[in-house]
Each structure stands twice: as structure tokens, then as C-alpha cells.
């Protein structure tokens, strides 16, 4: 198989499984109703998933061993969180975050 | 944010988040270019998979010529958190047509999901098709265009990490998380902070034994169970 076909087939397969993950809950929920407990469970999804995406970036994984702290990301999170509290504006928050990490890497020299 | 659920209000409320996706999209294009993928392949990946951070993993697996099925399985596992997002959003569209449901599901992403959850706090727990579809479309177009721009810029920029662009998406989640916590009326403040603290512990412990492709999914499943548990305890 040529490299091009290999790549295209992989992209199509990955696209299909991701699409199914996205749409199947919508199709199934038209047929079934969720119980009160499941709805309560789902009400925690937003904060947990966003925290997990954030926290997992603060560490470097070493499977089987304790993770190490990703200091640049941890330090950059400080001004980012502060800008969230002060501005409540996503654009400002993202710009502060990117600039913070940029400055930290500049100082650290890598 | 306000109670207005129109295309116009969706554009106004989604635009600030565009920069988060722009940063990470450009970074993805640059990484793809560095891994030897052509701009058209990078464009197709973003347009067809639309998997955010999962695509970085897909690129690294493609670069090592992994078997197709193992790449697909890995991508599915990383993106299976989409099942939870869709499951959370779907009840708000139950009464809409199947086509509308499939369209909303097809372009749903972390960013439009988080915006939608935030919006619920202002609209008396309502979402509609024009609003969320617009937020979805803006996120999708930004992601695809940003990836392409990154792929083309790859000819000029050698070390993209230097500029801190890869932190754009983390910063966006920090912002969305904070806005969600201060706006969510269904869960009280102390409970939310507790659950976030537990998530930090779970993430730390999870990193020891759970491969990174599964980490966010497993942590989310367990974290939500703990949330329900603590809510029950405090009610009594």
C-alpha cells in the first residue's frame, strides 16, 4: 500500500470512530430517557473534564512511576488563572496564558 | 453572556474562544509539517477527524508507521470522552429532529460544549439549534483553517513550542473552567471546588498507571461518580 493510501485510510477510519462517538448518544437518547441519577452524574462532566484536561498538562507521565511536575505549565497557569478571575474574558485569558509560557521558556532558555 | 439564543449572540460569545483554537490549530499544523505531512493531509486530518489534541497522537503514530487499526483504536479511545460530552448535551435536543441532532453531534467539540454548558446558566436551562450550531461551526472552521495556516507556516518556523502556542488550549480550559464554576447554579461553589480538587488527585494518581490516551476519560468517569457521592452526603 502506498504511503498516501495508508495515510488517507487511517484518517478516514479515525474520522469514522470519532464521528460515531459524537453522534450515537444523540441518536440513542431520542429512543431512551436518562434517569435522574444519570442526569446528576452528567452535571459534573463539564467541570471534571475541563479540570482533567488542565491538570494532565501540569505533569509529565512516567508510567509505573510518580509523575513529575511540568514546571513551565504550572507556573504559566498562575497568571492565566489570575487573569480569568480579574477579566472573566476568554480572549484575555488565552493571550495571558500563551505570553506567560512564552516568557517562561525565554527565561529558561529553551 | 445573556439569555439570547440566536446566531448573532452565538457569534458574539464564541469569538473570544476562537483564539484558543487558533493557537492550538496553528501548533497542530506546525507539528504535522515537522512530522513530514503535506498541508493537504494536515487539512484533511483536521476536517475529517476533528479531534483536537487527539490528532497530535495520530500524527506521531502515523510518523512511526503504526498499523492502521491500532491508530484508529487509539484515536477512538482518546476521543471517547466525546461520548460523555454528547450524552450531556443530547437531552437538550431530544425534541428536535434526528437530522438536527446528528448535525449538532457531528460538530460538537470541547469548546462549544463548554460554551453551551456556560450558556445554560443564563437561559433558564435552555439550548437551541441555531445557537449551538453556530458555536460548533465557528469552532470547526477555526480549527480547520488554523491547521492549514500552521502547515503552511511550517516552512518558516522551526521550533513552534518556543512561542508558548501549545499552552493556548490549556489556558482556554482554565478560563472556561473558571467561568463555569462562577456561573453554575446547579452545583454549589464548595462542592465544585471539592470535585476539582478530587480531580487533581485522580489525575496525579492516574498518571502512574493509566496511559495518557485514556487518562482524561477514566478520570472524568471516576470524578463524576465522586461528585454524585459528595452531593448525596452533603444533602443529608
TrEMBL record, chain A:
InterPro entries: Brnchd-chn_aa_trnsp_AzlD (IPR008407)
Keywords: Membrane, Transmembrane, Transmembrane helix
Keyword Transmembrane: yes
Residues annotated as transmembrane: 6-29, 41-60, 80-108
Protein name: AzlD domain-containing protein
Source organism per UniProt: Lapidilactobacillus gannanensis
Pfam families in alphabetical order: AzlD (PF05437)
From TrEMBL, chain B:
Predominant place of localization: membrane
Pfam families named in the record: AzlC
Lipid bilayer topology: Multi-pass membrane protein
Localization per Swiss-Prot or TrEMBL: Cell membrane
Listed transmembrane segments: 21-50, 56-78, 137-156, 163-183, 203-230
Record's keyword terms, sorted: Cell membrane, Membrane, Transmembrane, Transmembrane helix, Transport
Recorded family membership: Belongs to the AzlC family.
Protein name: AzlC family ABC transporter permease
Organism: Lapidilactobacillus gannanensis
Source organism phylogeny: Bacteria, Bacillati, Bacillota, Bacilli, Lactobacillales
